[in-house]
Amino acid sequence: MFAENRKISLRQLQALLLLDCFGTTVLFLPAELARLSGKACWVVALLSGVVFAVLSLLLTSVGKRLPQGTVVDWCRGCFGNFFGAIVLIGLAMKLLLDGMLELRMFSEIVCRSMLPTTPVWAISLVVLAVAGSLAAQGTECRGRMAEILFFLVAIPLAVILLAVAISSKYHRILPLELPSVSEIGSGIAAMSIVFQGLTFLYFIYPDLKRPARSRSAVLKSSALTGLVVTAMVFFCLAVYGEGVLSEKLLPSLQMMERVSFTGVFLTRQDVLLLWFWMASVSVFLSGTLFFGSLLGVQMFRQQETKRKTWLWVWLAAVFAASFLPENLSTAYHLRMRLALFFNLIYLVIVPFVLLLFAGKGGKADV
Amino acid sequence: MQISKDLKKNTAAIKEAFRDCGDIIMREFRIRGGEGTLFMIYTDNIVDGDAIQDFIMTNVMARCEMQGTKGLLQSLMDEVISIGEMSKITTLQQVYDAVLLGDTAILMDGNDFALQASTKGFPSRGVNKAETEVVVQGPKDAFTELMSVNVVLTRRRIRDTKLKLKRKKVGRRSKTDVALMYMEDLVRPETLKKVEQQLDNMDLDHLPDSGYAEQLLEKRQYSPFPQLQMTERPDKTASSLLEGRVAILVDNTPYAILLPATLNTFFQAAEDYYDRWEIMSFIRLIRYGAAFLAVTLPGLYIAFSVYHPQLMPTALALKVAATRAAIPFSVIGEVLIMELAFELLREAGIRLPSPVSSTIGIVGGIIIGSAAVEAGLVSPAVVIVSALTGIGSFVIPNVSIVSGLRISKYLVILLASVFGIFGVWAALLMLLAHLASLTSYGIPYLYPFCSSSVNDDMDWEDSIFRLPLSKMKRRPIFTRPSERERKGGDV
Lengths: 366, 491
Known about the structure:
Largest interface: A-B, 39 and 35 residues
Distance between the termini of chain B: 54 Å
Distance between the termini of chain A: 27 Å
Largest sheet of chain B: 5 strands, antiparallel
Number of strands of chain B: 12
Strand order of the largest sheet of chain B: 1-2-4-5-3
Structural class of chain B: alpha+beta
Strand content of chain A: under 5%
Radius of gyration of chain B: 29 Å
Largest sheet of chain A: none
Oligomer: heterodimer
CATH superfamily of chain A: Amino acid/polyamine transporter I
Number of helices of chain B: 15
Number of domains of chain B: 4
Order of helices and strands of chain A: HHHHHHHHHHHHH
Helix content of chain A: over 70%
Number of strands of chain A: 0
CATH architecture of chain A: Up-down Bundle
CATH class of chain A: Mainly Alpha
Number of helices of chain A: 13
Shape of chain B: elongated
Structural class of chain A: mainly alpha
Shape of chain A: globular
Helix content of chain B: 40-55%
C-alpha cells in the first residue's frame, strides 16, 4: 500500500521544507536586514534566496549520487570513522542548537504577546509535547501533517500579504538602492538561519518515494521560501521605511497586523497570526527530534525500536538547552553567531566535500 | 465425533448434548412399520414451521411408506424434500451447529451421514426506516438483525455477478454468521486478504454485534476515532462496494461495517448524491465547520473570556463580562458544568422510551436553559456555547466520529483553560498529529487532505465539496489502481 511504508512524496517533502524554513527568524529578519543593508534589504533577501536555492542543490546532489545508506554511512565513508564521528556529532549539535533556540524564541514571543503571566518553561513544554507527538509517529505522519498545515498556513498568509500589498504605499522603497558586496555577504549570513530546515536533507533520502526527482522539488521549495521572505522584507520596508524598520522587534508580525479586514470579528490579529509560527515551529521541532533520534540510532547502530528512547533523550536535551540563553535577546544574538557558523559548515562545506567524495566514485560505508 | 451407522448411538449423543434444552424438538419416524427409523431434530421457534410441515414432514412420511430403508436418506435429499438448500453432514458437531442455526437435521439408521435442510425462520422486525442516518431525499430502508435480509437489500442494488459474498463463522460459542461482501474486480486484493485473515484469526467466545468486530479489526484500538465505518443503510453499503470497499455484515446486527474508512467518508451522507451538487457542497462545508465548532467552541470561549478579552470587540467583551458578573463559578467551571449536563441529557434521551424522551428534551431545556440562567448559576453565553457545540455535533452524519470529537473537545477545553488560545492551537495540532498518524487498511485517515497525489488529486472532487456527478469520472482511492476509471463515461 502507498501508506505505512515510511515513505513521503515530493509534495510532502516540499511542504515540510517550506514549514521548516518558515520559522521565528522570519519575524526578526526584516529588521536585521534593514540594519545591515538599509533600503537594499529586500534586494539582499532576494539574492540570498537565490543563493540558498542553489546551495540546496548541493545536498540533493549528494543524495542523488549516494542513494545507498544514511548520513552516517556517507560521513564514515567520506571522512573515515573518527572524523566522520566528529562531523556527525557536529551535526547533532547543530540540530540541538537550532531546535533549542527556535523553541526558546518562540516560547518567549508567545509569553510576551499572549500569556504574560505563564512561565516560559510551561509554554516550551506544550510546544515540545506537540512536536514530540508528531516526531514519535515518524516521517510519514510528519509529511501528511505538513501537507495539511501548509494550506492552513499558506492560504491565509497569501491573503494577508496580498492585502498588505494592496494597502501599502511604496514611496519608502524609492529610490531603489543596490547593496554592496559586504552587505550581500552579511545578508546571506543572516538569511542562512531561515534555511535551517535544509539540514534535514541529510536525513530525508531513505524516506523519499522518488528520490531521483527530489532536486527540482527542493529547488522550488527553497526558491519559494526565498520569495516569501523577500516579500515580507519588501512589505515591511514599504510600511515602515528603513529607519523605523531597523528598530522594530517583530516587524513581520506588526506589518501583517496593520491589515484590517472589514467585518472581522476580532481585534488584535497579531495574536492570531502567531498561528502560522506555531504550526511551522511545531513541524521544525518535530524534525529536530525525529532526525536527532534517528541519528542516535544510526550512529550507535541500534535497532529501530530504540528510536523512542532516543526521542525522550532529545526531548529532554532540547528542553534543558533552551534555558541556556537568559532571555529572548540573548537567544537571538546567540543564534545569529553560532547558527551562522554551523550553517556555513553543514549547508556549504560538508555537502561540498561529500559531493566531491561522491564524484570521485566514493561509496557510503553501508 | 463422526455420525455412526447406529442411530441409537447418535440419538443418545444428541439427547445428551441437548439435555435440558426444552426448545429442541426431536422426532422419530418409523419406516414401513419398523423396517428402520428416521430421526429429525430442529429448534422450535427459530425454524420456519410451515416449511418443516409442508416440505419435510409430509413428504418424508409419504416416502417412508412407499420406499424401504435402502437408499432412503439419499433419495429424501435428491427427490423428496423440496427445500432449496440441502447438504450432507458427517459429524455430530455439524448436526448441533445446524440445529442451533435454525436448520433441520435428519438422521437414519444404517447411514453415516445426516441431511441438513435450510429451514431458518428467525423472528425479525422487518425492514424499517433508518434511525441514525436519516435522509430527506432518498431510500428510507435500513438493515435489520437478519443477515440474510441485509444481503438481499444489498444485492438488489447491485445486480452484478462480480458482487461476491464470503460467509464465515466467528465466535467459538456463538458461531455468528459473518458475510464479507465485495466487488471482485474493484476491491484491492491486499485489503480483502487482510480482512479475511483478521476474521479467521478472531478468537472470541461470542460476537454479539458488529461493534465488537469493528473494534477488533481496527489497528489503533486506543484511538477515540473510528477507523472503520458503520452504516445501517443498504444504499450506502452498495455505493461503498462500488467504490472498491469491503462490507462486513454480522448476523444479529442492523449495521454493516465498511472498510477502509477515512475521515472524509464519515462526513459523507447517503443523500449527498441524491440532490444537487451546489447545495450538497454547501452542506458539506457546514458539516466540516460544525465539526470544528463542536471541538473548539467551548475552548475558544474560555480562551477569549479568561485570557484574551482584548481580542474581542469591546462591546462584546463588556457584554460577556456583564452577564458573568454575578456567576459564582469560574468560566472553566461553567463550561464544564454545561458540557457535562449536555452529555447527561444526550445519554438520557437515548435510553428513555420514546413517549418520555420528548419530555426530557423539554424538561432538560427548561432546567439547563432558563432556570439555570435565572438562578444565576450559569451565564447565557455559556448556554449558547454549549447548545451550539451540541448542535454542531448533531450535524455530522456519522455517530461514531462524533464520539471521537466529543472526547477531543475536552482536551481542547483542558489546554484552553491553562494556556488560552495557545492551548487551543496546541490541542488542535496534537489532534491533527494523531489523525495524521492513523491509517485504515493502508489508506491515510486524512486522505484526500493529504497524500492525494496518489490518485492525481481526483479525490478532492468528493471531499469538502462535491462536484457534479458528470464530473466524477474516477473511483476513489479504495479501488484497485487498474479500475479507477469508471467505464463508459458515466458515473
